[in-house]
Amino acid sequence: MSNKISEENERYMQNLLCNIRLLRLEAGLSVKEMANIVGMEESLLLRLEAGEQADEFDSGHIFRYCHYFHVHPNELFGGWPIRRNAPPEP
C-alpha cells in the first residue's frame, strides 16, 4: 500500500513540475521574471523545471503560482497538463 501511495505522490509531483514550466512558457515569461513573481531564486526554478524536486519549493510558491495564473492548486497537480484548449482527458 505504501509503495502505491509513494508512486501516486511522485506522479503528482511530476505533474506539478511539468505544469509550472508550461504555465511560464505559455505566458511568455523568462525564468527571471517568473522567479520574481513567485518569490524564489532563479536557480531553484531552473532545477524545478528540469524535473528535480527541491525541498525549498513550498506551499507559498504554489499559492503564488495559483494566484498569478488564476488556477486552483488541484490543476497544478492534475494529471492533464494545464492547457487552455486541451482536449478532455480520456
UniProtKB/TrEMBL annotation:
Q: Enumerate the spans annotated as HTH cro/C1-type domain.
A: 20-76
Q: Name one GO molecular function term.
A: DNA binding
Q: Which domain of life is it from?
A: Bacteria
The family database entries (InterPro entries) matched by this protein are listed as: Cro/C1-type_HTH, Lambda_DNA-bd_dom_sf
List, alphabetically, the CDD domains matched: HTH_XRE
Q: What is this protein called?
A: Helix-turn-helix protein
Its organism's taxonomic lineage begins at: Bacteria, Bacillati, Bacillota, Clostridia, Eubacteriales
